[in-house]
Amino acid sequence: MRLNRFDPNNVRVGTTGSGRRFPGGGGGKVGCGTIVVAIIAAVVFGVDPAQMLGGIENGAQQQGAPATGQQSAEQLCSSNEYALETCNALSSLNDTWAPIFKRANVRFEQPTLRFPASGRFNTGCGAGSTGMGPFYCPADETMYIDVGFYQTMERQLGAGGDFARYYVVAHEYGHHIQKLTGVAASLRSAQQQNPRAANQIQVLMELQADCYAGVWASKNRNLIEAGDLQEGMKAASAIGDDTLQKNAGQRVNPESFTHGTSAQRMQALGLGLKSGDDTECDRIVELR
């Protein structure tokens, strides 16, 4: 996908070092996004999610991650190829979603992007670890993207290519959209009211984020290159709950699903790609 180079004035970027907190953070309460990523990491890597959520050290600094320190957006985003891709995607996502919110007369606020620079770090949602993979924290409206995860995607999940990586960023951005529109709060309330359906409701939230990723790509279809859509669909399939459980040698357990099956994730991404209409994605989370 031929994304334009990011505009340093159009991205909020920083690093996250060990023991450091950022504005919007505070309590030790862990947001649902962090919990979900920990569960996925447990399935893929066999890691105890309780250890992750407690902030247990998960290992050395990921190779290739941007270094800590007071650096400009230009420096951080240009530190390596994956960081540059991520910033390019963020800038494009901001440019795509801002006018959508304006037309809907809904307040729009850009999310912050942080590159974890150590194995363990703090977020507005509690303790984080680079081993948890990318996630969005609604408490500080920040996307935490460990660029080392992109190598894991390609080597362990077979989901390589730039569009597959853009899909990851666009999916996490989708959770930011849910925070701004109030969808995330509504779904969390529904989970509290109906704990038995908590996982099913979480699946709806994740599928809507997949759909939003497709909407972004659809609205930038002129930048899509041959093979991009196949990369996206392959990535969506690779991270379906049923596929992750099978590949981990586990029994497929629908009751434990948190993100949806491979087929559901591909369908949700495809819905956004085909329609280019965010209101189509809204129908995914209509609770009856």
TrEMBL record:
Principal cellular location given in the protein's record: membrane
A GO biological process held by the record: proteolysis
Membrane topology: Single-pass membrane protein
Region of interest called Disordered, as start-end residue ranges on this chain: 1-24
GO molecular function (one): metallopeptidase activity
KW Protease (keyword) present: yes
Record key words, sorted: Hydrolase, Membrane, Metalloprotease, Protease, Transmembrane, Transmembrane helix
Transmembrane segments: none
GO CC field: membrane
Pfam families linked to this entry: Zn_peptidase
Subcellular location: Membrane
Name of this protein: Zinc metalloprotease
